[in-house]
Amino acid sequence: MHLGVGTAGGKQELEIAGMISSFSRAVAFSVILATAGLTAGIAQAQSGDQSTGQSSNRVAADTDWSVFVDQNPTECWAVSAPKQTVNTKDGKPVSVRRGDIRLFVFYRPSENVSGQVAFTGGYPFASGSTVTVDVGGTKFQLFTQGEWAWPATPQDDATIATAMKSGATAVVTGLSGRGTQTEDTFSLLGFTAAIEEAAKRCAN
pLDDT tens across 157-166, in order? Predict the structure, then answer.
């Protein structure tokens, strides 16, 4: 189906197509999370606690990023925790309790998922809000559902990952359901090596 961009009708069709694509990705992503040990692995990614069984599937650590592999089905992901977190409300710093905060890229061959970018902020995002990822002044939008956010399309995943490969930090800004704005700064040291390792381990 061809969608024109030169008319108001064409723009509306593009918006609708984007929403459908985002909804489809949300459904697929929810299924992946529900059937995998991914969430537990993310929670352990940077905890430094190697005594728990959940961290035993870490296969590599590249500077500020770690690589995990899980089986049945096979999936691989690169993940990092923020170096700095700032929470504000009405423009003023506030102290809030948040769950695990992670930025990651994952691969799952059985679902044809390759290099999907995702962010979990440790709180439920405001309904209908988006998350902004700022890499070197270039900003990208992620759609939200519950405590998760991700790009609308695989093409957006690739664009963001490319920017992150050449960037120093990624600043992720979100809005909670209680009106708190969060700004999490992630180091990108080791990002390229980590996602290449994750992709290689899920290549077959």
Answer: 999 999 999 9
- Token pair listed for 24: 């489809």
- Give the helix/strand (H/E) hosting 47: none
Rounded to whole angstroms, the Cα distance separating 70 from 162 reads 25
Dihedrals φ, ψ of 90, to 5°?
Answer: 55, 35
- For 75-98, how does the pLDDT look when each residue is reduced to its tens digit (9 = 90+)? 999 999 999 999 999 999 999 999
Q: Outline where 70-153 has alpha helix (H).
A: none
Indicate the Cα dihedral angle 125, 39, 26, 167, nearest 10°.
Answer: 80
SS3 186: strand
Query: Which helix or strand (DSSP H or E) is residue 93 part of?
Result: strand 92-93
| Sequence letter at residue 48 | G
Q: Is the pTM of this model over 0.90?
A: no
DSSP state of 116: E
Residue type at position 187 = S
- Give residue 71's pLDDT: 86
Which two structure tokens, joined as six digits, stand for 181?
């704005």
Calpha distance 109→111 (Å, rounded): 5
Spell out the residues 6+ positions from residue 159 whose beta carbon is closer than 8 angstroms to its own. 140
Q: Rounded CA gap, 101 and 103, in Å?
A: 7
Pairing, β 148-150 against β 138-145: antiparallel
For residue 125, give the DSSP letter.
B
